[in-house]
Amino acid sequence: MTSARLSLLSLALFGCYSAAGSAAQTTPQLGIRDKTPNLVALTNATVQTEPGKTLTGATILIRDGKIEAVNSNGRVPAGYQQRDLSGYTVYAGFIDPYTQYGVPKAGEGEGFSFGRRPVYENERRGGNAANDAIHAEQRWVSEFKPDSKAAEEFLKQGFTVVQSARQDGIFRGTAFVASLADDLPNNLVLKADSQHFMAFSKGSSKQTYPSSLMGSIALIRQTLSDANWYQAASSRENVTVNGQPLEFNAALAGLANVKQQGVLFDTSDERSLLRANKVLSEFEITNALLLGSGYEYSRLEQIKATGKPILLPLNFPAAPDVTTAEQRLDVNLADLRHWERAPANPAVLAQAGIPFAFTSHGLNKKTDFIPNLRKAVQYGLSQQQALAALTTVPANILGLGQQLGKVAPGYQADLVISRGDLFAEGEIVATWLRGQEKRFAPVQPAAFAGQYQLSVGEQSVQITLTGNAPKLAGEAVLGEKKAKLANIKAQDQRLQFSLPLKDLTEQAVVLQFNGVLSGEQLAGYWLDAAGKQQSVTAQRSSIEPKAAKPAPAPAAMLSKLTYPNRAFGVEALPQAEKLHIKNATVWSATEAGVLENTDVLVSNGKFEKIGKNLATPRGYRVIDATGLHLTPGIIDEHSHIATEQGVNEGSHANTAEVHLGDVINPDDINIYRALAGGVTAVQVLHGSANPIGGRAQIISLRWGADAEGMKFRNAPPSIKFALGENVKQSNWGTEFNTRYPQSRIGVETFIRDQFQAAKEYQAAWQAYNTLSRREQSRTVPPRRDYQLETLVEILEGKRHIHTHSYVASEILMLMQVADEMGFKVNTYTHILEGYKVASEMQAHGASVSTFADWWGFKMEVTDAIPTNTCLMHEQGLLVSVNSDDPGLLRRLNQEAAKSTMYCNMDEHEAMKMVTINPAKQLKIDDKVGSIAEGKQADFVLWDQHPLSVYSVVQQTWIEGARYFDRSSDLAKREQLESERQQLIQKVLTAGESARQGSTNSYKQDDPIWHCEDNDDWLKLRFGFGDHLHSHGHAHGGQH
C-alpha cells in the first residue's frame, strides 16, 4: 500500500474515531456505533521528545489519542496503521496561553471623552460588580464554541492547545485550556478553570471610571481587597454589613481562588509589567504570568526580580520610516534602538535565566509567527530554548505539564510534523491533535528535483526541476533557448506544469504536462493546443544539489543600551563621590545666607563640612569652583512630569484612592531636562479635576533609576485637593452637568460630607480593633476602603493636603471646613488671591506655593498680581514658587528671581522660594533644601549668579552623585546624533526586510500633562477615543 493511500485511509479512520469518541460519553449516538480503533505508528522520524532530547529513526505509537510509546527499535505491534516519516522532524504540539479562541469578542466601548455624556453607574444584574470593567465572575468555558477556521490559523503555526478568554476589561474572567482538535467542546476542554485574565485597559466599558492608568490600578487594588474581605465574610453565618445582610457579589466570589488559579496580566511595556507585578505582589498573588512587550531587555534586572515568567509576543517592529529627508529628521533614537534590539529580546531573557513562553498574541497575521520565531533564533536564542517556550514552559505554567509539552508515553498525542528543521527553513506539513491528523502539505511527496529529457514533437527538450513541493521551480532548455515552466503543481507522486513554446520555438502555444513519478521514471503526456495527448516518458538524471544557505548572522549591534533606553540615558547609575568643592559662592538657604569663597566637603552622599580654606582629605576629588555659585538643588512643589497615562482621574469627585506613585514614568525626558535646570526633586501631583484628587508622590530626579528608585525615600505622604472652576466642571462642556458638586457651595458640602464618612469609617475600625481576639474571630471586620482610608490619614495628621486654589472666598472656606472637621490644610498651591487672606492662612498654619507672575488667563484669576509672593512673605507665610509646567520647571531659578524685580525681595529669600521653602512644605527639609552639614548632598553648580537669566547650570548632584554635567551633555549630543545616523544607515541598508514587522509595537510618549488635562487616557492608549482637554487648550495652555 502506498504512502498516499495510507494517508487517505488514516484520515478516514481518525474521522471515525472522533465521532465515536464524542458519542462514548454523554452525547447520544444516532445510527450504528463506530468503534474503529485508533492505533497509529509514526516510524523512522527524528523526534524532539522534549527540549534538549532527540531520538533519530524513532517510532511513536499512538493509542486512542495518547502516546503509548516512543522508541528507537523500530518494532511496530500488529494492528497499527504505519506512517513512514523518514526525513521529517516531530515536535510536541505548541501551546499558546493567551488567545480569544472560541469565545465571542467584545465590541468597542465609547469611553469617556468630551462631547459625550459621562456614565457613572452601570446596569446591575446577576450579582455583577459595580464597575463594567470587572468581569471576574465570567467562566469563559461556558461560552466556548470551537471555530474550525480560527483553529486552522493556529494549527498552521504548530499550535495544538490554547488558553482562551475574552480579552476585554480589567478583570476579564476565568480562562480555559482547550485542544484545537475538531470535536465537541465537551471533549476538547483540558482545564475548565485556568488563569484569570487581567489588564489595565478597561476595554469596552462605557463607564467613566477609571479614566486613567492610576484609576485602573486603584480599581484593581480595591477589588482584590474586596475579594479577600468578601471571602472572609461569606465564610461566616448570619453576616450583616451596616445592619444589612451581606450582598451577593458574583464578581468577588469569582476571585475567591485567584491565588490558586493564577493570573495572566496583559501589559503594554516593561513599566506596565513592573506595575502589574507590584500590585499583584501587594496581595501575595505569586502565581502569575506577565504578558511582555519586547522591551524587557531595557529593564532586565527589574524584570528578573519579579520572579515571574514572561509571556513574549513575537511582534518585532518594522523599522521606522526614514525614506525621506523629513522622516530622517523626525525619527527618534529610542525607536531606532528598539528596532535593532527587539529580535534579541528572547535571547537576552534566556541568558538572564528568566523563564518565558511565546504567544501569537499581538501579531498582525498569524503567518508571521514562524518567521519571527526563526528571527529570534537567528538573534541568539537557542533552538532548545525556543522549543521550551512553545511546549514545556507553557504546559507547566498552565498546570498541564504531565499531559502536554512532550513527546512521551502518557502524553496527549499533540504533534507537529516538520519537513526539515522548523527553526531554520523547515516547513510544517501537518499537526496531530489527540491522534487526529491535520495536513497542510503532502507528507512523503515525491522528490521531483532533477533533469528529464521529454519529447516535444520531434525534438527533445531538457526539463530541469529544482526545490521541493509545493515550491518547485522549473526550466525548459532547447538548444540555446530557455523557457520558464508555469503553473507547477505537485501532489504525492503526481506532477503538472505548463510549457510556453514561444521562447523555445516561437510558436504561440502552451503545452500542458500531466504525469506521475515512479522511482526515477516520469511517465505522462503532453496536452497540445488542439487538446490532443502525446505520451512521453523520461528517466531522471540528478543535478548537483545547491548547498543550503545558512541563515545570515545578524549584524553587530550599533546601538547602546542605556537607562532609560533613549537619548541621554545613562549606561550605569552615577555613584556617590567624595568631593572637595573649593572657593565657591555658596547660597546656603540657611540663616548663614550667601557665603563667599567657601569650601564644601561631600562624602557618603551628605554635606560633611562647610568652611573656608579646608584641607583636602585623602581620596577626595577636588572641584575648583572659583567664580561658580553653589546652591541647594531646586525643588518644585507642583509638577506633573514623570506621569504616565493620565494626570487626572477626573471621573469621580473624590478619587483619594488613586496614587501618582503607581504611575511614575522614569523614562520621561523632562526629568533629564529638569536636571539641566538644576532641579533635584519635585512633588508629582494629581490634576485639578475633582475636589478631592489623588495621592501625590515626591520624586528625586535620579535619571536612569526605575520608578521605585525615583521615589524620595521616607517622604511623608501628601494629596491633591482642588477648588474653583475645574472641580465643579464649569469648563468641561454642556454634557458634564450631572456629577455632584456643580457649584462652589456644593464643593464645600461635598468635602464636609466626605470627611464625615471618613470619621465614621475610622470609628468602625476603632470599634473593631477594641474587640478581643476571640470576638474578632466571630466578627466580620469593616471593609477596607482605600478612599476613606486616605482621608483618615489626613484626619490623623499622617497625610498632608496641597490644594489647587485661586479665589479668596474658597481659600477661607476650606480652612473653615478643616477647622470644623479637625484637619489642617498644609499648602495652598497656585493661590493667586493669597495676598487677600494671608493673615488668615498664617493663623491656620498653612503655607503657600504660587506662580511668580501668572494672571488673567481665566475668570477666577483676574485679581492675580505679580507682588503676591512678597505680600504673603511679609505676612509671615512660608512661600514657594512652583512650575506646574515642564518648561517653567527648567527655569524655576528665573521664576524665583521675578520677585526681586517686582517687589524687591531679598535675593537669598528669593532663592529659598525654590529650595528650602518647598522642602519645608513637603516635610523633607530635614534632608534637603539647604546646604548644611549632615544634610543630603543635593546641589547645583552655576556658572554665574543663579538668579540671572544668563546663568547656566554646569553640574547637578543628588546624594553626592553627579546626575547632570554640561560638558558631558554637549559631548553626548554629538555621540547620540552619530549613533542615530548609523542606525538610519542600517535601516536603509536592510532594504525591504527592514519594513517587515509590526507598525504598532513602539512605545508612545505621553503628552505634556497639565492640571486640567482630563480625558480617558486608557481609551486613547488602547485605541479608543480622542485625547482632548477640558478647556480645549494646546499643551502649553491654562492651569
The major β-sheet equals:
8 strands, mixed
Tell me the number of helical segments per DSSP (H or I, 4 or more residues long): 29
Fourth-level CATH superfamily of the domain at 94-398: Metal-dependent hydrolases
Overall outline: globular
Q: First CA to last CA: what distance?
A: 83 Å
Uncertain parts: 1-23, 1017-1039
Quickly give the structural class. alpha/beta
Mean pLDDT, as a whole number? Answer: 90
What CATH architecture of the domain at 94-398 do you see? Alpha-Beta Barrel
Helix content: 25-40%
Can you count the beta strands? 46
Give descriptors for this structure.
single chain; eight-stranded mixed β-sheet; disordered N terminus; 1039 residues; TIM Barrel; 24% strand; alpha/beta; disordered C terminus; 46 strands
Describe, in short, the structure shown.
Helix content is 26%, strand content 24%. It has 1039 residues and is an alpha/beta fold.
